[in-house]
Design a protein that fits this description.
By secondary structure, this protein is mostly helical. It is built from 21 helices and no strands.
């Protein structure tokens, strides 16, 4: 058993977060609120935020406990953000108003003024039409003498909008915001700017700069969900740079954190990347273990895409020549997809199942699987994929000395089809930054 496989078994065996466990203090509730927010569980994040606030004393003046005040302000910020995302505008406005009141009590007048000026805009993604609002606020509060770290609250969303519109010079502005937050003693805000910066550099192909931003973020005391996210940025960068060992190590770190915090979608992405790198390194046991973790996390998250992860596991077992295990996974997947009426996806699973059965010298069963696959592809209008299924069936029949049936399948494969596009029978290979999860490769012929 490789060291990687042992590490993956350790991650798989780690107890999952207990949804009923209550953190001991307000900071613990803040950590939980962030983790629920990263999991897109807005209601859970809001509940955690409210519970944390119940343990946080209201500030009584500028000399209030700075640590408790920062936790309370962060809790109110999380509440304002997730309640906006959840459509609870009244709740979000109440949290934002309470946060402004706390800032004034603490003597942070400039920040309170800016937050009052921009309202809920600071706690959600800005819309293109709001650029002028942000620019006006920036000019107004700069003229009023607001410090750089306060002005960064308006500069940051402007920079993000510019970058998303294709202006890569906006990354210099993001860097400036991160530096302003650092100098102003706001590590939580600094980490958010650095995460944007790392993603931006990675997207623009500047992997070394992305790694530098990621390492600076990891040196801060930030929540586990954000640490997991930045480990995935590092994994992506190392993958693009052709550093498989480093990419795998970073992805494993992300997987451990995502799994421990219950951020299922992130855990699936990290496990998928580990699996693909391990497979390329011919460490089949580690690759299979990683895909099993991905399936487990996808099922816990009840994701619609879980079928694709299970298909990847089946293909990995097939590649590792674990034919009986592959057959078990693929047969159950075919039945599930067919029952759901997902004929094209079921056909892809049937293609893999056919290869699995052929390797067991069960030619008749393999032929039936490929014929069913061809029918499923044709029913879905995927002529190119249907052609591949007919070619597989015809090749098998040529070995069986059945020339008539063989020619029938080859003829079906070469029938002209308008605008035929031949696509791979399995989902596309991995790219760590893809929106779809990475998938195992096409099964061997």
């Amino acid at each position: 058993m490789s060291a990687l496989t042992q590490r993956l078994h350790g991650i798989s065996g780690t107890p999952q977060p207990d949804p009923l466990a209550a953190p001991a203090d307000a900071r613990g509730w803040l950590e939980l609120a962030y983790e629920r927010a990263y999991s897109e569980d807005h209601e859970g994040a809001a509940r955690a935020g409210q519970a944390g606030l119940e343990l946080t004393p209201e500030p009584t003046g500028p000399d209030a406990d700075p640590s408790a005040s920062e936790v309370g302000l962060s809790l109110l910020g999380v509440l304002a953000s997730v309640q906006q995302l959840d459509g609870n505008t009244a709740g979000a406005d109440a949290a934002a108003a309470r946060r402004i009141s706390w800032l004034r009590t603490l003597g942070r007048t400039h920040q309170a003024d800016l937050e009052e000026h921009l309202g809920g805009l600071l706690f959600r993604e800005p819309r293109p039409g709001e650029t002028a609002v942000l620019q006006a606020a920036l000019a107004t509060h700069a003229a009023a003498g607001a410090p750089a770290h306060v002005l960064a609250d308006a500069r940051l969303p402007l920079a993000v909008m510019r970058f998303e519109e294709g202006d890569e010079q906006a990354l210099e502005e993001l860097q400036g915001c991160a530096d302003a937050y650092r100098d102003g003693g706001r590590p939580e805000s600094e980490s958010g700017a650095l995460l944007y910066l790392a993603h931006g550099h990675a997207k623009g192909g500047r992997q070394q700069l992305a790694l530098e931003a990621a390492d600076r973020l990891l040196a801060l005391d930030v929540n586990r969900a954000m640490r997991a996210a930045v480990w995935m940025v590092k994994a992506s960068c190392h993958h693009e740079l052709g550093h498989p060992v480093e990419a795998q190590g970073c992805a494993v770190e992300a997987l451990a954190l995502y799994s421990a915090t219950g951020v299922r979608r992130g855990a699936v992405s990290a496990a998928a990347l580990v699996a693909n790198i391990a497979s390329a390194d011919l460490d089949q046991e580690a690759a299979i273990t990683a895909w099993r973790i991905a399936v487990e996390q996808a099922e816990r998250g009840e994701f619609e895409e879980t079928w694709a992860v299970r298909l990847a596991l089946g293909n990995q077992l097939l590649e590792a020549e674990e034919f009986l295990l592959a057959e078990e996974v693929l047969e159950s997947l075919c039945a599930l997809l067919e029952a759901r009426g997902r004929h094209d996806d079921a056909a892809r699973a049937l293609m893999s199942l056919g290869h699995c059965l052929r390797h067991q010298e069960r030619e008749e069963d393999a032929l039936l699987a490929w014929e069913r696959a061809a029918a499923g592809f044709e029913r879905s209008g995927l002529a190119g994929d249907a052609a591949r299924a007919h070619l597989s069936a015809g090749t098998l029949l040529s070995d069986a000395e059945d020339p008539a049936a063989c020619l029938r399948h080859f003829s079906r494969a070469t029938e002209p089809a308008p605008r035929r596009t031949i696509r791979a029978c399995c989902p596309s290979p991995c790219t760590p930054t893809a929106t779809r999860w990475p998938k195992a490769g096409t099964p061997p012929a």
